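Protocol step 4 of 6: structure prediction from sequence.
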Amino acid sequence: MVHLENFWQTYQDEGLVVLALAQGQTGPVVASWAESKGITYHLGLDSDYEVFRRFQEGGFPFNALIGRDGRLVFSGPGLDVNAMDALIQSELDETPVEESSWSRVKALF
């Protein structure tokens, strides 16, 4: 999760939204964990694994990069930090900010 925090700190001013979903956990457990780890990006709950079942492709951690236009740029298990950083930079460089990235992410759920 430290890599997600690094992406968030590096690119949030350029429009990146980081959303991590905690599977099978309660709000208080997730909030306590996030505070202890210094997590400042957005966290959500997937207590019944519904979102995970929709997007999961073979393991934890599962990562997805969704462009500002709502298209799925990348999805898959694991995290190749350098590859994800390159994808994020590419998306931020190519897509002008037209509306809140966060509103587009929320619309997917």
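Step 5 (inspection) to follow. Helices lie at 2-11, 27-37, 50-55, 81-94, 101-107.
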